[in-house]
Amino acid sequence: MSRFIAALLIVVSGVAALVFAWPQLFGLAWTPVVAQVVAMRGLGAAVALVLALVLTVIALLALGIRRFVASLAVIALAFAALNVIVLATRGFGNVSFQTEGDGDITVLSWNTLGDEPGASTIAEFALENDVDVLTLPETTNELGLEIAALMKDAGRPMWVYTLAYDQVSKARSTTLLISAELGEYSVDTESRTTAVLPSVIAKPVDGSGPTFVAVHTVAPLPPMEPFWQKDLRWAADLCAEGDDIIMAGDFNATLDHFAGMPRSDGGDLGACADAALATDNAAVGTWPTRLPALLGSPIDHVLASSQWTVTGMRVVESLDDAGSDHRPILVQLSPSE
């Protein structure tokens, strides 16, 4: 009986490891617990590797349960290896940028955790990197105006657009800044976009240029998971084939979650391509800043339609002490030929 129980535990552990390592195989990437675990592949791989080492030591010391514990160690090691392989295919970081050309657009996306970094930090970084568009989830209109004023004083005027569902929490505001050089944009500041937290859609007034979307989907925590799925479907549907669109922000989702969304024209979400995946940066975590980037979760994204080619990206780790729990991401997009 003890052997049967041991064998059963080994089988169950192996299946569980496979589910958590590649939930898409079973259509479970959206389910509670699994959605959270697969979002932290780097951390999961590190924990599994430590567990494998501990189990190996136990197997060497405890002769009576050596086979059972050794089997669990192999499963933990296989789980860690599979996660590392997946992360390696997505890229552990490439911060190179091509020389900026005519028509290029540089996008900065940063969930500010309720204005925490402050206007001067954000404006200074945007000016240093010649940023054209800033998508700032959890950022109030007041801070957006402060950033714009600082950038205008430096010779780079910006339009400011904010959608706030209420004033109860700064997390219920999302702000989008667009360089005046890109033309005038219009935003519907009354209609709801994403279900719980606001996203901003800005369309060019003269019809020339891309639509910009500052995205903030709710986190997949009970009881918000149905709203999270609805938010991601909204984003996927918005990025329809043929449209000229650039969307960026806090999606609270990784590529594993994108895999369950509608895709077309070779896109990673809808018809849009993920900048991190295109530049070998998709394994670099943007949240939380208290963890090393390779152990964190890459839930902040810049996505663009086929009219644009990603010519540079980096996850900014130098601002981990700025106050937000998210790292900013900087992306350069060039018009496709």
Description:
There is one protein chain. The protein is α+β, with helices and mostly antiparallel strands. It has two domains: 2-90; 105-335, 4-Layer Sandwich (Deoxyribonuclease I, Chain A), CATH 3.60.10. Helix content is 35%, strand content 20%. The chain has nine helices and twelve strands. The strands form two sheets. A six-stranded mixed sheet has the order 3-4-2-1-12-11. Strand 7 (211-216), helix 7 and strand 8 form a beta-alpha-beta unit. The longest helix is centred in the N-terminal third of the chain and has 25 residues, at 66-90. The radius of gyration is 22 Å and the shape is elongated. The model has no long low-confidence stretch (mean pLDDT 95).
Q: Would you kindly provide a brief summary of this structure?
A:
The chain has about 325 residues and is of the alpha+beta class.
- Rough outline: elongated
What is the count of helical runs?
Answer: 9
> Domains counted in the coordinates: how many?
2
Just give the CATH class of the largest domain: Alpha Beta
CATH superfamily annotation of the largest domain: Endonuclease/exonuclease/phosphatase
Q: What does the radius of gyration come to?
A: 22 Å
**In the CATH scheme, what's the topology name of the largest domain?**
Deoxyribonuclease I, Chain A
- Going across the biggest sheet, name each strand in turn: 3-4-2-1-12-11
Alpha-beta content class: alpha+beta
The count of β-strands is: 12
Determine the N-to-C terminus distance. Answer: 67 Å
Helicity level, as a percent range?
A: 25-40%
Strand content: 15-25%
- Order of helical and strand elements: HHHHEHEHEEEEEHEHEHEEE
